[in-house]
Amino acid sequence: MRDTLGVLLAGGAGERLFPLTRDRAKPAVPFAGQYRIIDITLSNCINSDLRHVYILTQYKALSLNRHIREGWGSVVASELGEFIEIIPPMQRVSKSWYQGTADAVFQNIYSIGSEEPKYVLILSGDHIYKMNYALMLEQHQQSGADVTIATLPIEPEEVSQFGVVEVAKNGEVTGFIEKPKETKIRSPFNPDMVDASMGIYIFNTDVLLPELMKDAEDPNSKHDFGHNILPKLLGRFRVNAYNFVDENKQHALYWRDVGTLDAYYEANMDVAAVAPTFNLYDKAWPMRTRAYQYPPAKFVFGEPGRTGMGINSIVSSGSIISGAVVRDSVLSHDVRVNSYADVDSSVIFSHVNIGRHCRIRHAIIDRDVHIPDGTVIGYDPAEDRKNYFVTESGLTVVTRDYSVYENPVSPEFLSQNF
After folding, report:
1. What's 4-272's CATH class?
2. Which of 40, 138, 182, 220 is the most exposed place for a label (fewest CB within 10 A)?
3. Ordered DSSP codes for 361-391
4. How far apart are CA 273 and CA 277, in angstroms?
């Protein structure tokens, strides 16, 4: 991995995670209590011994930048030439912001070239999975490939959400279609499944850089790896597929795109379960994050009807469950749940205060929110829509300025007014 540069794309606007992404970048959204989404990919990098990483940021990156600076700067050894470095849009080769995934990498072509890597590993900062990138690089080298695409099997009904990879029995990629409505392509390894791109690519640098320059000069290009770069490589270079090897070590492969509110919520509910599919407690594959200096979590009062309890839940440091009940939930740092309150199947961000006698169910509460005594959330979607953001599935999202929401709330309304 010493000859490999990781380029982690973390600049997406994350519209489908709105309103959680209204004030923060998607990779900076909290996950599993004490982590941010980007921590999962960065932990994969460190566990894979990849210690040269550029993070390309763009939208609303302040909290993401702080998190990387304060949480990841000490993980690598700068005196050995290692780095995890944030690179904002510099407009060095363009006057515009990033126009697509390929354009984001192209606009940093001089920074990539200055490191003189033999290989470039393209990653995304908004997926939940465990993967040893060194194994993928090993296959890339041994196969003599110019480009390797990481793939995982999906159901044919899901193809509209993925890049579909047509793979020969020898592992060579013979076709690539970005998010088709449907396809007759099937995996040679499982005829009931389709091989889908994970958005993880290894390029030989001497192949990647010229292709990025050609794409940048094409006025009809979307400047995207899936739409443009990868399909144009086929037939000209050796492009191989790498079947996802899951370091999560469960019966089923675990890879989640937490790009929607419902998918994000379900991923958090999984890690809080008694037997979670995604294991955060695996000492062989540790998940790292920024360390916060909060005291331990505390549960107080044991009177009948006023007992501080956390059941099947993640409760992060600095939180106090004071005579309240928390079930099947994920609490971030510095959360206070006051007496007689009941929190069920919810995700609570940091610095939230939940008042007495509140009842909260099937909800996401953003940071710095104060829930007044006696508030009921998540029991009546029609009533919740008067004040909060509610998804079609009935998931309620409460942010700091929830009282200004109109009914019904739409992302279009909020994007125009904030």
Report:
1. alpha beta
2. 220
3. ESEEE-TT-EE-TT-EESS-HHHHTTTSEE-
4. 8
What would the pLDDT profile of 61-90 be if each residue is shown by its tens digit? 899 999 999 999 889 998 999 999 999 887
Q: Where are the alpha helices (DSSP H) in 220-321?
A: 230-233, 261-272
Quickly count helices (H) and strands (E) in the chain: 10, 31
The CATH class given to the 298-417 domain equals mainly beta
For residues 269 and 273, give the distance between their C-alpha atoms in angstroms, rounded to a whole number.
6
First to last CA, the chain: 44
Q: What is the pLDDT of residue 413?
A: 36
- The ranges of the chain annotated as CATH 3.90.550.10 are 4-272
> Which has the closest alpha carbon to 167: 243, 81, 267?
243
- Taking the C-alpha atoms of residue 415 and residue 262, their distance in angstroms, rounded to an integer, is 20
Helix runs in 107-169, H state only: 109-115, 133-143
Whether residue 412 is predicted with pLDDT greater than 70 in this model: the reply is no
CA–CA gap between residue 145 and residue 204 (Å, rounded): 8
Which residues sit opposite 61 in a β-bridge? none
Q: Which residues are annotated as a binding site for alpha-D-glucose 1-phosphate?
A: 98, 163, 178-179, 197
- Burial grade of 46 (CB within 10 A; 0-12, 13-18, 19 or more): middle
pTM value > 0.85: yes
**Cα 176 from Cα 136, distance rounded (Å):** 19
